[in-house]
From TrEMBL:
SUPFAM superfamilies: vWA-like. Residues 57-298 form the Putative metallopeptidase domain. Residues 309-430 form the VWA-like domain. This is Metal-dependent peptidase.
Length: 445
């Protein structure tokens, strides 16, 4: 309760009643997420008041009931009172989606540890954050729509935009960029700007001050996610209906060995999307559904694939067996993005880079080297290649000096084991020092 009396007990009570009703609605509509919905911690903000009547008015900036990664749900009283119960409940399910799918940790605009601001500034960063929010929304709303839970007007819907279903946020980013460019020429906006809070992008908001010290701890979240995933598995065993995206999530959540693979795949795909010059597009095969929705004809899409070079740490501290298993993973992911028969260039590197190898398969890479480690030499050699690569993927235990400045190519570091570190300018994903052998999953790309 505020000291200045702007929040009355009656207003607070009405807001709490609405949240309680919305929770029941959400738990009833998606029973497999009931424990998640009840784990959300509503933080009621100071209301925006109408100058004349003194009554709370809705602030559109809070229409998504934004969340933070501690599962606090920020409720702006005027917005809550003006929003139907079903819509508040829909946003609760939506925010649970951002939280359990780790969108904040996957966000390209998440501040690097130790840095308050990220690499881009101002409008560019806002645009990137906004696009990530839309892409993450597309990933979640898909599964809500599969349950006949249609979102409120103005939210992103892959079906209505004629985008392919069941993709990840990383995959939706370049597709949305193309649509936005196409629609910009028609003077229209793709969707309304909706801000889902730091749960979607990892950037703290000013209003989160009021939720500090509240919400779930890291351990709470870990246990909660496991119990949600276990509940979904039980429902699947009992042949209850669960949308496919949630089935996949639960399976991955309960198998940590799949977890790092998913992260590795997401990181590499994100690197590919970042440098691909986004997406190549042509107007040869327009999408009729998209045209029907927006009134303009968006281009059909084909992904441009960046030129990729692998730099492999063959110093004494990493075994060939581990490298071979990881190379199979990495080249499998690149093949999934780029198609088969894609030629790769690879350097083995210890204290110096060995001769470049042009290969088609992981098994064709000859691992040579030993002794000390200096990945600076390997990265310098990779970026000096002609044609110059767009993306450099480094496999290393991270116990190496790194270039002091961002190299001329986007760098993804696959960090083997727990000991080493990756530089702030690279995208990094930690992989186990003893990865299990790859077992192809049916339907996996
Ligand atoms: Zn959202």
């Amino acid at each position: 309760m505020s000291a200045d009396g702007s929040r009355t007990p009656a207003c607070d009570e009405a807001v709490r009643a609405r949240i309680a009703a919305a929770r029941l609605w959400a738990a009833h509509r998606a029973p497999y997420l009931a424990s998640a919905v009840f784990a959300l911690n509503p933080v009621i903000l100071e209301p925006a008041l109408d100058g004349d009547s003194g009554e709370p008015v809705a602030d559109p900036g809070f229409r998504a009931f934004p969340a933070d990664t501690r599962w606090n749900l920020y409720v702006e009283p005027g917005t809550a009172l003006a929003t139907p119960v079903e819509e508040v409940g829909w946003w609760m399910l939506h925010q649970v989606g951002h939280l359990v799918r780790g969108h904040a940790a996957r966000s390209p605009v998440r501040p690097e540890p130790g840095h308050e601001v990220g690499h881009a500034a101002g409008a560019v960063r806002d645009e990137e954050a906004h696009r990530w929010n839309q892409a993450a929304d597309a990933e979640i709303n898909d599964d809500l729509e599969a349950e006949d839970l249609r979102g409120p007007a103005g939210v992103v819907s892959p079906a209505e935009l004629a985008l392919p279903a069941n993709r990840t946020a990383e995959e939706y980013v370049p597709m949305l960029d193309v649509l936005v460019q196409a629609m910009g020429r028609g003077g229209r906006a793709l969707t309304e700007a909706i801000d889902c809070g730091s749960a979607v992008d990892g950037q703290e908001r000013a209003y989160e001050e009021s939720g500090s010290g509240e919400g779930l701890t890291r351990l709470d979240r870990e246990l909660l996610e496991r119990s949600i995933a276990a509940g979904i598995q039980d429902r699947i065993s009992a042949r209850s209906e669960v949308p496919s995206g949630w089935r996949r999530w639960a399976g991955e959540r309960l198998r940590p060995s799949v977890d790092w693979r998913a992260r590795l795949g997401a990181t590499i795909r994100r690197g590919v999307s970042t440098v691909a010059g986004q997406v190549d597009f042509s107007y040869r095969r327009p999408s009729r559904r998209a045209a029907a929705y927006t009134g303009i004809v968006p281009p059909s899409m084909a992904r441009a694939v960046p030129d990729t070079v692998l730099v492999i740490d063959t110093s004494g501290s990493v075994t060939d067996d581990v490298l071979n298993r990881l190379l199979a993973e990495v080249t499998g992911i690149i093949e999934g993005v780029a198609g088969p028969d894609r030629r790769l260039r690879a350097f083995c590197c210890d204290v110096r880079p060995h001769p470049v190898q042009a290969v088609r398969r992981a098994g064709d890479i000859e691992l040579t080297g030993g002794g000390g480690t200096d990945m600076r030499a390997g990265i310098t050699a990779a970026t000096a290649l002609r044609p110059r690569p767009d993306l450099v993927i480094v496999l290393t235990d991270g116990e190496t000096p790194w270039p002091g400045q961002r190299p001329a190519a986007h760098v993804v570091v696959c960090l083997i084991g727990d000991a080493g570190h990756a530089p702030g300018w690279a995208s990094a994903v930690r992989v186990p020092a003893d990865p299990p052998r790859r077992v192809p999953v049916k339907g996996e790309s």
